[in-house]
Amino acid sequence: MAMVREHWNLSAPPFDGSLEPATFYSGGPQEEALARLEWLTLERQRFGLVVGAEGCGKSHLAAMAVRRLGGLGAEAVMLSLRGLAVGDWLELLLDRLPLDRLSRAEPLRSWPKLENRLRENTLMERTTAIVFDDLDSAPSDASEGITRLVGAAEPRYSRTVVVATVTPQGLASVPLGLRQRAAVRIELSPWNVDDVGAFLASSLHRVGGVENIFSTDAIATLTRFTAGVPRVVSQLAQLSLIAAAGDQLPQIDAVTVERAWRELAPSGAVETSPAETEDETLPVNPRVRVVRRLWG
To answer: Which helix (H) or strand (E) holds 197?
Structure first.
């Protein structure tokens, strides 16, 4: 990677896939999703669902939603439900809420502690925004608790907003009663070619690189192979940087992007890439051709 950074004059990897705020790119789908979540909060709606395929940036969006809703004055927290055991979610949620020392020390069970915090915020006319990532991976008690949060009629819940992310495949595992309570269902779609180009330029600019490292044809090819899925866009962009640096190219072209995909991407991805299904000029079942060794 040192060779890649030196060749492109980069201060850090531009496509590291982290969830840091600085690496978030608000493309069209992301901006639309955040705007709808703002509406959800401002209109004091109780529940919203963000639906997106794996790799479309649901977790990164969830983290940014906490920042955006916090900017509206809400007390916003996020909890990933993936991998949690039954009985863990409520304590982890309380850990993320800014309870004072006395509140934490109260000899109460976890749910009354949560209700007390919701009541306090309601009395102060402050929204409590809770963002649950990976709702389709939630343990059963978490699904029941979230259903209670969004469905309870008591005044203490009146300024509580719940947002949850889920995959289209996992949506069926969410209890029907919970799905039906969603005031909005936000579809997080893949990027188009303009979004991909802007993401590449902003990511490179952030680490001191030249924004037009990827040619126009390279951006179109990268969008086609990745189907605009943000996670895969980042991965292929990184592989293309490596391939072009190995060839000492001044700019990444479409041929380099395709070669990086075929030589460095996982073999399963090559078999099912969008390029094979959408571009009739490519062979139906292409074989990976080793043009040269990119690793020295």
So the answer is: helix 193-206
Specify the 3-state DSSP secondary structure of 77.
strand
Element (H, E) at 140: helix 140-151
**The model scores a pTM over 0.90:** no
Query: What is the spatial distance between Cα 165 and Cα 171, in angstroms, rounded to a whole number?
Result: 9
What are the angstrom distances between the C-alpha of 185 and each of 19, 50, 171? 23, 6, 11
Residues of the chain with CATH 3.40.50.300: 28-187
What is the distance between the alpha carbons of residues 270 and 225, in angstroms, rounded to a whole number? Answer: 9
- Measured between alpha carbons, how far apart are the two ends of the chain, in Å? 12
Q: Domain 28-187 has what CATH class?
A: alpha beta
| Cα–Cα dist 255/174, whole Å | 43
CA distances to 8, 140, 154, 169, 256 from 151, in Å: 53, 17, 9, 24, 53
What's residue 99's pLDDT? 87
pLDDT digits (tens, 9 = 90+) for 49-76: 999 999 999 999 999 999 999 999 999 9
Non-local (6+) Cβ contacts of 26 within 8 A are 34, 64
Query: Can you read off the two tokens belonging to residue 263?
Result: 């030589």
Please give the average pLDDT of every successive group of 10 residues along the chain, which has 296 residues: 86 85 90 96 95 94 95 96 95 93 82 94 96 96 95 92 97 94 94 96 93 95 95 94 93 95 64 42 31 35
What region, left, alpha or beta, does residue 125 occupy, with left being phi > 0 and alpha being psi -120 to 50 degrees?
left
- Domain at 2-8+191-278, CATH class: mainly alpha
**C-alpha to C-alpha distance for 262 and 249, rounded to whole angstroms:** 18
- In the chain, residues under CATH classification 1.10.8.60 are 2-8+191-278
